[in-house]
Design goal:
Layout: H1 4-18, E1 31-37, H2 42-54, E2 59-65, H3 72-81, H4 89-92, H5 97-108, H6 111-116, E3 120-124, H7 130-143, E4 151-155, H8 161-171, E5 180-183
Parallel strand pairs: 1-2, 1-4, 2-3, 4-5
Helix pairs in contact: 7-8
């Protein structure tokens, strides 16, 4: 039977997985590169786009990454169920996750002004997992002739945040000194027990 201890245990695991190092992206110090990893949690993308809208100098580069993977269908569903974005469904269905998020960025935020202010926006649409996010991000930055960033902020689904951070550290382990990586899951999930289960 679930108890209040069960909820506390779940929240402890959620906190560990999220590995929140930056709580509010809009209050973060400037960084060389923000990496937005595709997921069905649109709050992550919205936090990045809003923060850059308020301060385009927050990052020299933004990499939006994510191809078509096992959970991409959930992103399409989330778009369809979000009134603000639902009209995009026919257009984004079948696209890689990064392209879906970039479409939202372009249509609902001032992407062009952010780019004009000097933030280089790159779309990585091949990766299908956390390790791939890291490897393909490095590839696209190098292909564009961008020097190895000294600092990264990684924005990822909080249930995969710590593993993605580890993947980036592994991918750049040959660099000395290594870049500084900070995780910003944008929120940490929390559950609580309902006293009256009849409410479920």
């Amino acid at each position: 039977m679930a108890t209040s201890n069960t909820a506390a245990d779940i929240n402890l695991i959620a906190c560990f997985l999220a590995h929140e190092q930056i709580q509010d992206l809009s209050q973060a110090p400037p960084t060389d590169c923000i990496v937005l990893c595709g997921s069905a949690i649109l709050h992550c993308a919205e936090s990045v786009f809003s923060a850059l809208g308020k301060n385009p100098n927050l990052a020299k580069s933004l990499v939006i990454c994510g191809g078509i993977g096992h959970s991409t269908k959930h992103l399409y569903t989330t778009v369809a169920q979000t009134p603000r974005y639902a009209a995009l469904l026919a257009e984004i269905r079948g696209l890689p996750e990064s392209r879906v998020l970039d479409t939202i960025f372009e249509r609902f935020y001032d992407r062009a002004s952010i780019a004009r202010a000097g933030c280089t926006i790159l779309i990585e649409d091949q990766s299908t997992n956390c390790g791939g996010n890291a490897v393909e991000t490095r590839k696209i930055l190098e292909a564009q002739g961008i020097p190895t960033p000294k600092s990264f902020i990684i924005v990822q689904d909080p249930t995969m945040s710590i593993r993605t951070l580890a993947a980036f550290r592994k991918t750049y382990e040959d660099i000395s000194p290594p870049p500084a990586f900070k995780a910003c899951p944008t929120f940490v999930p929390e559950v609580r027990m309902l006293e009256d289960v009849s409410l479920l």
